[in-house]
Amino acid sequence: MLVHPQFDPIAFSLGPLSVRWYGLMYLIAFVLFVVLGRLHARRRPELGWNAQMIDDLLLYGVIGVIVGGRLGEVLFFQPGYYLQHPGEILAVWKGGMSFHGGFLGVLVAMWLYGRKHGKGFWQVTDFIAPLVPTGLAAGRIGNFINGELWGRPASLELPWAMVFPWVDAAPRHPSQLYQAAGEGLLLFVILWLYAASPRPLRAVSAVFLIGYGSLRFLAEFFRTPDPGIFGTLSLGLSTAQWLCVPMVVVGLALLVLTRTAAPAPR
C-alpha cells in the first residue's frame, strides 16, 4: 500500500511570484498542443494547416478551455460551494476545472475560429482531436499532484492502492493516474494513429467523442464521484458518467454518417 507524497502545490518561486504545479501542467498541455499540431500538419499537408494557424488555434483553445472548464465546474459540479465562496470562482490556479465544461467552451471557440478563418467546424475539430489527449493527461497529473479527485476505496491487496491522508486512512484507487493513462495516453495513441491517414469528414471527431466518453465513463467507477448538481443519478451513475453518454451517442451517430462519405483526398 502506498501513501500519497503530499506534494507542495508550488513548483517553484521567482521572487514574489509562485508557480504552481497545476498551472505548470496547463503550460505543458499548451506546449504539447503546438508541437503535436505542427507535426500533424507536416504529416498531413493536404489538410491545409500551418504554424501560424496552429498558434491562433491555441489562443482560441486556451480561452475556451479556461472559461468553459471553470464555468462547468461551478455550474455542473459545485454550485453550492461557489455560491457561498464567489471569490473562489476566479481562483483557477487552485484546481477545479470540469472537462465537460471545457469541452463545450473549446467547441464554441473552434466554431468562432472557423468562422473567422474560413474553416469548417468539422475541419477544425478533426484536426485538433489528436492534439487534445496529451493535455488531458497533463491535467490529470496536475490533479494527482494537488491531491484532488481521489479514487474510491480499494482492496488492501491492490499493490498500488494509495492512502490520501487528508481524506481518511482507507487505501484508494489513484484514479487521477488511471485517467491520465486512459483518457490521456491511450486515447492519444488511438487518435494519433487513426488520424495519420485520410478519413471522412467528422470521423476523427467521432472517434474522439466515443473514445473519451467511454474511457471517462469507465474511470468514474474508480473515482470518488463529484457531488454534481444532481449528485448520484439513476442506475447509480455519477453526473460525469451521464454527461459522457451523449458524447458517445453523438460520436456513434457521426461515425455512422461518415460510412457513406469518401475519405479526404491524399
From TrEMBL:
Q: Which UniProt keywords apply?
A: Cell membrane, Membrane, Transferase, Transmembrane, Transmembrane helix
What is the organism of origin for this protein? Thauera mechernichensis
* UniProt cross-references to InterPro entries, sorted A to Z: Lgt (IPR001640)
Return the NCBIfam families for the record: lgt
Query: Hey, which pathway is this one from?
Result: Protein modification; lipoprotein biosynthesis (diacylglyceryl transfer)
Query: What Enzyme Commission number(s) does the record list for this chain?
Result: 2.5.1.145
GO MF terms held by the record? phosphatidylglycerol-prolipoprotein diacylglyceryl transferase activity
Function description: Catalyzes the transfer of the diacylglyceryl group from phosphatidylglycerol to the sulfhydryl group of the N-terminal cysteine of a prolipoprotein, the first step in the formation of mature lipoproteins.
Q: Where are the transmembrane segments?
A: 20-37, 57-77, 97-114, 126-145, 176-194, 201-219, 239-257
Q: What is this protein called?
A: Phosphatidylglycerol--prolipoprotein diacylglyceryl transferase
What kind of membrane protein is this, topologically? Answer: Multi-pass membrane protein
Tell me which domain of life the UniProt entry assigns to the organism this sequence originates from: Bacteria
- Subcellular locations according to the entry: Cell membrane
Which gene name does the record give?
lgt
Which family, according to UniProt?
Belongs to the Lgt family.
Which EC class heads this enzyme's classification? transferase
Q: Which residues bind a 1,2-diacyl-sn-glycero-3-phospho-(1'-sn-glycerol)?
A: R140
Task: Locate the coiled-coil region(s) and give their ranges.
Answer: none
